[in-house]
Design goal:
alpha/beta, globular
């Protein structure tokens, strides 16, 4: 497989090696998942390009790439779009050897959309391959997960990020500074700004606020900031990541409160794109800290808040 598809990938060397092998003999479905900005969308797109052998141009315009993405002005992928796209998957490819269904935001499907997608996956077209990306696996039905090769992506070492930035033409000093800001996320380092900084102040207040009132005010601030963003779900992912970064700094000094709040953040992540606001889970965690109560996790994270009770 030509290296043109993988030359500028920062980190994830073992995953890239696997992708090169899978291009030659791909499975039916792949799901890339991991924290924000680690490169899962980038790798998934490069994998799609390698499968259809197209290194340039808009994938939306490629005749053998069927894009499942929210329509303009909408947050979720409609069931009508799924039903329309699945008809194309049963047609023969025009330029490539196969038809690729690309779902860059799989967790934006609702229950009806997942059911429509599952109908295709239960009777897969002979020439179709599904490539999907998700941040919140709790939103993905087990019937979809069991039919996919799951590709987990984690944080990248600062040294690898710095090396990758230097290969892009940055000086050693600037690359080192950006790699430090990236905190294991190549996407943040490449952007040259800290997209979590907008949440940092409220996140620190949520973690280290002296009273319940301070923490509740912080969660309200996080809600306001997130709901002011165009992509609310992505904003909540970043906000909760910022909370986790603040919690790591408190873990040694205040272990038990940090664990209680961390459980609340985990519960809030499970609520992204659900009927329950993530903010409610943070509020509940704030109250649990005041009671010094660390609840046990439940067994139903896909359907209920992970553990917190009031």
């Amino acid at each position: 497989m030509p290296s043109k598809y993988w030359d500028d990938v920062i980190g994830h060397g073992q995953v890239v090696d696997l992708l090169k092998l899978w291009v030659k003999n791909p499975a039916f479905s792949y799901l890339f998942y991991g924290p924000p900005h680690v490169g899962k969308s980038t790798l998934a797109e490069k994998f799609v390009r390698a499968l259809v052998d197209s290194s340039a141009g808009d994938l939306n315009l490629h005749p053998d790439v069927v894009m499942f993405a929210p329509e303009e002005g909408k947050k979720d992928i409609s069931v009508e779009q799924v039903r329309k796209n699945r008809l194309r998957l049963y047609e023969r490819p025009q330029l490539a050897k196969r038809v690729v269904a690309f779902l860059p935001k799989l967790d934006r499907l609702n229950e009806t959309g997942f059911n429509a997608l599952l109908k295709v996956m239960e009777e897969p077209p002979a020439d179709a391959i599904f490539i999907a990306v998700a941040e919140n696996l709790t939103r993905i039905p087990s019937t979809i997960l069991s039919r996919s090769v799951c590709v987990p992506l984690g944080l990248v070492s600062q040294k690898e990020i710095q090396k990758g930035l230097e290969a892009r033409g940055l000086s050693s000093k600037e690359a080192e500074e950006r790699a430090l800001v990236g905190r294991g996320r190549p996407g943040l380092a490449i952007q040259s700004d800290d997209s979590l900084e907008v949440y940092a102040s409220a996140a620190r207040q949520f973690v280290a606020g002296p009273t319940v009132g301070h923490r509740l005010a912080a969660t309200e601030k996080l809600r306001q900031v997130c709901e002011s963003q165009e992509d609310v779900a992505a904003a909540w992912s970043s906000a909760l990541e910022s909370c986790m970064l603040a919690l790591r700094q408190e873990l040694v000094a205040q272990t038990r409160p940090a664990l209680i709040l961390a459980q609340g953040v985990a519960d809030a992540k499970a609520c992204i794109n659900s009927a329950v606001q993530p903010r409610f889970m943070l509020d509940a965690a704030s109250l649990q800290v005041s009671r010094d109560f660390l609840p046990m996790p439940t067994l139903y994270p896909k359907y209920f808040p992970l553990s917190l009770t009031i």
